[in-house]
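Input set for joint prediction.
Command: fold jointly, output C-alpha cells.
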Amino acid sequence: DQQVKQNSPSLSVQEGRISILNCDYTNSMFDYFLWYKKYPAEGPTFLISISSIKDKNEDGRFTVFLNKSAKHLSLHIVPSQPGDSAVYFCAASTRATGAGSYQLTFGKGTKLSVIP
Amino acid sequence: DSGVTQTPKHLITATGQRVTLRCSPRSGDLSVYWYQQSLDQGLQFLIQYYNGEERAKGNILERFSAQQFPDLHSELNLSSLELGDSALYFCASSPGPFNTEAFFGQGTRLTVV
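C-alpha cells >
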C-alpha cells in the first residue's frame, strides 16, 4: 500500500517555464514533507521541506505548497532550467511516539526534463 | 558531495551468496539509515541505527541485517541472495535520531545473477 504517491512518472517543461510536480499522501499522521532531487549515478539530495503547520515554503526558485485537507503537496520550480532535469522524490514523515523515529516514506519519483 | 561514503559502488554476485555493504556517515552524524531502491520503485526504508543502537526497522527481510560500529560507520549484510534483491542500496545519515533532512550517499548497485 503506497502511502506517498507521485502519479506522474515523467514531466517535460520548456526552459523558463514553471514546473509543477505533484504528490499525494494517504497517511493523515504525516506532518513533515520533503522533496529530494536525484541525478543519475548520485544519491538523492535534499531540496526543500515543509511542516504541516505551514501551507507554503519558498527557497529561491523552489516553492512547496501543502494542502492538508486534500492530502496533497506540490513543488513549483520557477523558472525551470536545464540543470533542474532530474528525478524528484516526494517524502513524508511522522513524529512517532515511543522510540521516536522520523522514517521517511518516499514516492516513486517524477522524472523532470527541462528542454532548452 | 554529501559527505556520506558508500562502498563498493557496484557489486555483482551470484544467487545464494552473501555480501556486505559499507557506509561512512557525514562527520558528526550519529544516525545511519539504509534504503533500498528497486527498479521503478521509490526508496524503501530498511533500518536505522542511532549511535550504535538499532532505532527503527522498516521493510527489512530476515535475510538482511545491519550494524553500526563504535566509529559510527555501518554495514548492511545481505545473505542468501535472490535475483529480486538486485537494487540500489542507499545509506543516509543525519545528526540526530530524526532524519528530517537526511544526507544520502551515492548508493551501491547490487546485481544478483
